[in-house]
Design brief:
Strand content: 15-25%
Structural class: alpha/beta
Distance between the termini: 35 Å
Shape: globular
Strand order of the largest sheet: 12-11-8-6-7-14-15-23
CATH superfamily of one domain: ANL, N-terminal domain
Helix content: 25-40%
CATH topology of one domain: Rossmann fold
CATH architecture of one domain: 3-Layer(aba) Sandwich
Oligomer: single chain
Number of strands: 30
Bound molecules: 5'-O-[(S)-butoxy(hydroxy)phosphoryl]adenosine
């Protein structure tokens, strides 16, 4: 990537200082950076005091067997006690923990006292089903309160959960059950998706016919949709309402070691079998609680927090289940899709509950941009005071739209960079401190050490690009890959000695602020220049007729790789407009320089995405290089690829 194109990203020259009132009352000020820099471990030891420990830790970090970390190793605590019971004991039993909004319009609110009873009952039920400390429990659920209750019940018993996203297939579920050797599966008859019941139980039944799943003794089934003809295996399957409801609503939590496993969460790497990312107890909860407090400036007495992620992803684990509840927050849990039954559904929910902090993903923001400014304008969004973004680099265009149309040109945007592996946020502006720049995650949080290095592991100077690395261990780091320590070493710790390799490309600007450029596998090599897919996508989306763009490098005899762009046009633009393609190429050349001008631009109706919203570039590369498509099972809608292929001259007819 040439320095000109970085300059182009920055030339927007838009800087947004924190709102004065927010800054004056912010939970965290600039002093936190100084404290953490002066004594990083002391800083985290201090943050661990946010939790209630049965035995307070005297050790902070044990890095003697690096990179296998132990944080707060001699401390003991119970995660569910921290997320639920202690708030009730502190007199907050009547505070709403979860406002649940079903897709079909049903809703219910659970207070912390309700949550304590429900989690206790679920824990007692799991005990009755033979779940013991250390047993793994798979959770395959829709977005309903029972999912969070199930996770907390597992945590309460020290039984690590493995939540598998409800959109995954039976095969994906089976692989994860096998790898973790789960003993119980918690599921539902189904959930609501786009206004219709969508079954889950059949996938569990199918998964449990596969070899390696024999150790699953019970399937605990929540009745959500009331679908008829739920297949039933007597002796194995039990209804939640029959087994959980009759339990005592009291259960005394036991404290576990800080390094006791809390959960396994599989990351769906593009190749190889999924990696079971292992997180443990004390360090994880410390960092999710601290970051939720600091990055969102959470005021638990008055804020209403809403993270739109699915609880099946790490964002849902850390910022639906654990961070907000550890902090005694009131939060929204929404079951469905943003456009059911209408495209204003999210904004209606913000208005209904007076949501003050919204945490969502760039892909969702771009979808809302595409639907039009008039939709959010119909709702009262004046309660919103902090906006968050996560999951991929947010293009400056979407950032500006988010600020203007959702944040009333006032709410600070926190662009939070982190990963399943990091467990909690790592880079982000602080809303009361940082002057934000559209499109940049900017700075490591207090207590986090990150930088950008070149191929030889040397830190790059300001203004240059390379690889993002984390240079010191952090409390919520993954401890290993479940059952595969060697893969943990190889994947994260072997590229640069002594540093964690995140797999993302990044640049530092002239102020030293960090800009994420996408996965390193997504960097293109064009005539000897490294060009990031993210930057070309940002340039395309900055054109008024483009709603969304995905860019890949296709093998090219002349230039090594040629830039191929797939674009979704805005409402009025026509895909048959030859002039438009020329105009878009010229626009990119003007924004980033002629070297970044896409060789081909293909208007399409949809882009292939994983269920977590990440564009599947591998598939687009296959299309661009006229190859057969590989595995499309993790796509949200595989017909998208047929449509794209059919449009390409030659591509579809060659095989
Ligand atoms: C990858 C991790 C973190 C929870 C959701 C995704 C990309 C994530 C950002 C951001 C630029 C981002 C990175 C990262 N990513 N947040 N704010 N800016 N890129 O978790 O599925 O483990 O994916 O998502 O490429 O490595 P994940």
């Amino acid at each position: 990537m040439s320095n000109e194109s970085l300059a182009n990203l920055l030339k927007e020259d838009r800087r947004f200082a924190p709102p004065a009132e927010l800054a004056a009352n912010a939970n965290v000020t600039a002093a936190a950076y100084e404290q953490a820099a002066a004594d990083r471990l002391g800083f985290w030891a201090e943050q661990a005091k946010r939790l209630s420990w049965e035995t307070a830790p005297t050790e902070t970090l044990d890095w003697s067997n690096a990179p296998f970390a132990k944080w707060f190793a001699d401390g003991k605590l119970n995660v569910a006690y921290n997320c639920v019971d202690r708030h009730v004991e502190n007199g907050l039993g009547d505070r709403v923990a979860i406002h649940f909004e079903g897709e079909t319009g049903d809703s219910r609110s659970l207070t912390y006292a309700d949550l304590q009873r429900e989690v206790s009952k679920a824990a007692n039920a799991l005990i009755e089903l033979g779940v013991r400390t250390g047993d793994r429990v798979a959770v395959y659920m829709p977005m309903i309160p029972e999912t969070v209750i199930a996770m907390l019940a597992c945590a309460r018993l020290g039984a690590p959960h493995s939540v598998v996203f409800g959109g995954f297939s039976a095969d994906a579920l089976a692989t994860r059950i096998q790898d973790a050797d789960a003993r119980v599966v918690i599921t539902a008859d189904g959930g609501y998706r786009r206004g219709k019941p969508s079954a889950l139980k059949p996938a569990v039944d199918e998964a449990l016919t596969k070899p390696g799943t024999e150790n699953v003794r019970n399937v605990l089934v929540v009745r959500r949709t009331g679908q008829e003809d739920v297949a039933w295996t007597e002796g194995r399957d039990v209804w939640w309402h029959e087994v959980v409801e009759r339990q005592s609503d009291r259960h005394t939590p036991e404290a576990f070691d800080a390094e006791h496993p809390l959960f396994i969460l599989y990351t769906s790497g593009t190749t190889g079998k999924p990696k079971g990312i292992l997180h443990t107890t004390g360090g994880y909860l410390t960092q999710v609680a601290y970051t939720h407090h600091a990055v969102f400036d959470l005021k638990p007495e008055t804020d209403v927090f809403w993270c739109t992620a699915d609880v099946g992803w790490v964002t849902g684990h850390s910022y639906i289940a654990y961070g907000p509840l550890a902090n005694g927050a009131t939060e929204v849990l929404y079951e469905g899709t943003p456009d059911t039954p209408h495209q204003g559904r999210w904004w209606e929910i913000v208005q209904k509950y007076g949501v003050t902090i919204l945490y969502t993903a760039p892909t969702a923001i771009r979808a809302c941009m595409k639907w039009g400014d008039d939709i959010p304008a119909k709702f009262d969004l004046s309660s919103l005071r902090v906006l968050g973004s996560v999951g991929e680099p947010i293009n400056p265009e979407a950032w500006m739209w988010y600020r203007k149309h959702i944040g009333a040109d006032a709410a600070p945007i926190v662009d939070t960079w982190w990963q399943t592996e990091t467990g909690a946020m790592m880079l982000s502006p602080l809303p009361g401190v940082t002057t934000t720049k559209p499109g940049s995650a900017q700075v490591p949080l207090p207590g986090i050490a990150a930088t950008v290095v070149d191929d030889d592991a040397h830190e790059v100077p300001d203004g240059a690009g390379g690889y993002l690395v984390l240079t010191e261990p952090w409390p919520s780091m993954l401890r290993t890959i479940w059952g595969d320590d060697q893969r943990y070493l190889d994947t994260y710790w072997s590229r640069f000695e002594g540093k964690y390799f995140a797999g993302d490309g990044a640049k530092k600007d002239e102020d030293g602020d960090i800009w994420l450029l996408g996965r390193v596998d997504d960097v293109m090599l064009v005539s000897g220049h490294n060009i990031s897919t993210t930057e070309v996508e940002s340039a395309l989306v900055s054109h008024p007729k483009v709603a969304e763009a995905a860019v890949v490098g296709a093998t090219d005899p002349q230039t090594t790789q040629a830039i191929c762009a797939f674009v979704i046009l805005r409402g009025t633009a026509s895909a048959d407009d030859e002039g438009l393609v020329a105009e878009l190429r010229a626009h990119v050349a003007q924004q980033l320089g002629p070297i970044a001008k896409p060789k081909r631009i293909m208007p399409v109706a949809e882009l292939p995405k994983t269920r977590s919203g990440k564009i599947m570039r591998r598939l687009l590369r296959d299309v661009a290089e006229n190859r057969d498509l590989g595995d499309v099972s993790t796509l949200t809608d595989s017909s998208v690829m047929d449509l794209i292929q059919a449009k390409l001259p030659g591509a579809a007819s060659e095989d």
